[in-house]
Design brief:
single chain; mainly alpha; Serine Threonine Protein Phosphatase 5, Tetratricopeptide repeat; 3 domains; two-stranded parallel ribbon; 1% strand; Tetratricopeptide repeat protein; TPR-like_helical_dom_sf
């Protein structure tokens, strides 16, 4: 078990004022500094709605790490400085993305240790510390102890008598929220296939905690509901991406129910967003449209144009699956209009993946569903070109979709080259990506005598044998 000092590092404390950022503001008022931020954003083609309140939140330590748009603006304003120099936390501590120097990639052992109670007790890695915090939080939470122990989340015997309820505090809520962030980080880098069954364990423990506990404050209860719901969506996504559609549907429904019980429109919009995505992948295109529209109704209470943009793209995908070009184009136009409003402080944390690359990729999927392969390939190429290399899983996905579009657009050698780049990212394990590559291989098979195509087909077969 981690020491108390390790636990304190793994669980965030109260907001700590960002003195470094305050020093950079100098004698300017928060309003004047906000104006300079907006000016700097325009210089590099970004849109940020920065005001004195935002600056105040940064300086108070309420914003531990800025979103990507603000990050680009701040680094433009202060060339040569890093986010750490500006007083911000590493993005890995907040969500798991980022543009600075990445931490070393997780290997199979580290992935295993996140959800396995048998990890080396002498290790002092962040993963070990977080795993211990999760175990302690769940193991000390009344009747949640039974669920946690039975799922292998905590060592030691189960007490003979379990209290019916326990007060929930910061430790328990932070543990749930940190589990969500860690799952997203691992998925960003490695894909879903090796994570799903491990991730289901903290999810079950989180819901046991939710069912067995009472909260001292309404704000704590709201955070616990939101955290459990987001954890359900994260685990649902791992099921979704690894081809377990029925499991994914169940997890998304669980998140939706949690959102409605907790009267949480942001969580509800997220659940509907993923439900729409799943329905499209499962060929239930009417459901994809309806779910995206329901998500948009919930999202109107969130004040996030980017969230509405993503949900409009989900609706466009449903219309494309139905072969409704008009409905698709209307939804795409609405998605772009929302996207062009820029990021907002109210954008949900889970949306850090949603930038221009994803916008292009989802549009490419729409044109592919409508059979317009050259147009789909143009957007897929732009998505792959723009994608931050830290998001390894999405980079592999965009390149795989580019290969598929090029193969059907009559550009076999380019398709093979894009497919080779996907195989180069061997650390990504995603059934979705493997399925796209296998489909591309079938399309390219008649051109196997072409040098680049033949090499790809051989390499693809070898990767299947290794799997």
């Amino acid at each position: 078990m981690a020491s108390s000092s390790q636990a304190s590092r793994a669980v965030p404390n109260r907001a700590v004022p960002n003195l470094a950022f305050r020093r950079l503001r100098g004698p300017r008022s928060p309003g004047e500094f906000a104006a300079s931020v907006r000016k700097a954003a325009r210089e590099i083609g970004e849109q940020v709605s920065c005001d004195a309140r935002y600056i105040g939140r940064v300086e108070a330590g309420e914003i531990r790490c800025p979103n990507y748009a603000y990050e680009r603006v701040f680094l433009h304003m202060f060339p040569g400085l890093t986010l750490a120099d500006l007083g911000f936390a590493a993005r890995e501590q907040v969500r798991g993305g980022g543009r600075g120097r990445p931490p070393e990639p997780f290997g199979p052992r580290e992935t295993r240790e996140l959800f396995d109670s048998d990890s080396d007790s002498n290790s002092h890695s962040d993963i070990d510390e977080e795993s211990d915090v999760l175990r302690r939080a769940f193991m000390t939470s009344g009747s949640a102890t039974v669920a946690a122990a039975s799922l292998g989340l905590g060592p030691g015997p189960v007490p003979g008598r379990v209290p019916a309820q326990r007060r929930v505090g910061e430790t328990e809520v932070n543990a749930v929220e940190d589990a969500v962030r860690r799952i997203r980080l691992l998925d960003d880098r490695h894909g879903a296939d090796g994570l799903y069954r491990r991730a289901a364990q903290p999810l079950r423990a989180a819901y046991a905690l939710l069912d067995a506990s009472t909260a001292a404050r309404r704000s704590t209860a709201d955070r616990l509901h939101a955290g459990a719901g987001e954890l359900a969506i994260s685990v649902g996504w791992l099921a979704h991406d690894s081809g377990r559609f029925d499991d994914a549907r169940s997890h998304y429904a669980e998140a939706l129910a949690t959102a409605r019980v907790g009267d949480d429109p942001a969580l509800e919009a997220h659940a509907f967003c993923n439900t729409s995505f799943l329905a499209r992948d499962a060929g239930r295109h009417q459901e994809a449209v309806r779910s995206a529209q329901a998500g948009q109704r919930a999202a109107r209470h969130v004040a996030s144009p980017r969230l509405l943009s993503l949900l409009s793209l989900r609706e466009a995908g449903g219309w494309a699956g139905l072969g409704d070009r008009t409905g698709c184009e209307k939804s795409l136009a609405r998605a772009y209009a929302y996207f062009d409003r820029g990021p907002a402080d109210t954008d949900p944390e889970w949306m850090s993946f949603f930038g221009e690359p994803e916008l292009e990729a989802l549009q490419a999927q729409c044109w592919a569903a409508l059979g317009e392969w050259p147009r789909a390939a143009r957007h897929a190429r732009r998505a792959a070109t723009l994608q931050d290399t830290r998001f390894t899983r999405n980079l592999a996905l965009y390149r795989a979709e580019l290969a598929a579009d090029l193969a059907r657009a009559g550009a076999p050698e380019e398709a093979a080259e894009a497919a080779h780049q996907v195989l180069d990212l061997a650390e990504v394990q995603s059934s979705r990506i493997q399925s796209i590559l296998s489909d591309t291989a079938r399309v390219l098979l008649p051109r196997r005598r072409t040098g680049a195509v033949g090499t790809f087909l051989e390499r693809h077969q070898e990767s299947l044998r290794r799997a």
